[in-house]
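Quick start: load a record and inspect it. Here is SPOR domain-containing protein:
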Amino acid sequence: MKLFILYQTDNWKSKASRICFGVFDTRAKANESAKWQELSNSNSKVVVLEITLNIFEEI
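Running the structure step on this input writes:
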């Protein structure tokens, strides 16, 4: 099963600046939530990472 993690980050999309805003079952729901919360602006970007459930790995 695939899950999608929604992050807000800086313009350079560095891992150190990531803030998690939720876990979703579809990419469309993650993007819709990011738009509704207005997470993307001139100083920040949105990153949606696809992960597989029940697999141990570095994100």
